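Internal ticket - ligand job 348, zinc ion:
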Amino acid sequence: MSKLPNESIDERIKRLHSNGVIDLHFDLPMDLYEKRNRPDVLGSHYLPEFEAGDIGVVGAAIYIEDRYMPELGLRVGLDQIARLYAEVEKTDRFAICKTYQEIVNARAAGKIAILITMEGVEPLGDDLNLLRVFYELGLRAACLTHARRNAAGSGGIFAASGSPRDGLTAFGRDLVRECERIGVILDLAHINPRGFEDIIGLTSKPLIVSHTNVRKFYDIERNISDEQIKAVGQRGGVVGVNAILVSADAKKSTIDHYVDHIEHVIGLIGIDGVGIGFDFCEYLFHQLPKEIIEEIASKLTTPHFIPDLTNHTHARNLTRKLIERGFDDDEIEKILFRNWMRIFEKLL
Ligand SMILES: [Zn+2]
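stdout (structure tokens):
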């Protein structure tokens, strides 16, 4: 099905967003933690943005900045979850969800569902018992690493080659098996190429990449190759497309090129294999001190934000672009929410 008779493009976008857009990667807990002395950041700053973009489910990623490592990894990880619960409690507009059914119920009640995820397992140190603790607190998806090495494995670097060649550690391998067993979705975002292969070999259930771009358009080992995309597709997994590493060239960092990434994934593994993982962090990035921005640029990369796709209020711009590019309603609904929901239904 496509456009309804007499339906304007805005009405069509509204209809396509009626189930809520799913963004599976957002560094929300980190910001709530940094602003722990300024209560109600979630309700006053983020809620209006989510509502303007019709966001229905958010993957809220626990991430530990370098300055807290190694001593404070666990403490800051726990504190981020504590802030998330405290902020959610202040409004009736959110629900932290641990199962597929809880997500469905939250949406039916008009609430924004939050799924707790982890970007780098630094809070666990090398203690497998702590996975269970975070699971009980709501952790439901995890990438083993960010760019740096940790007790589980090594991240892919922001260059075309040169990531550490080693795969997962013994701890990383145990962790992967235990995630699959207890029901923490394994997220292949950021892991180095050898670690990616290891995770594929250790698991049998669907795998996801919550937020990435395709190496065809931005060739760095932090992004994923065609072979890796196919491996995720063969498992019935989903690749979430990231809005901040669309191109090495600022001029090519456009919504159109974002859609090129979506189309590339679809070309390799079909319409069921792609979703959204915006990784919006312009707001977070610009509030960092200048020295930290310079440090990120030297250690990682300078992200090129897409001017009309920098935060959740812009979600409708993407849907408008998908319509312009000829996607039909069924395809748009799969990209915006149905593919991620399928993963939740199967794994949570
Ligand atoms: Zn990331």
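Auto-summary: The chain has a mean pLDDT of 96. The pocket of zinc ion is lined by residues 119, 189-190, 211, 279 (CB under 6 Å).
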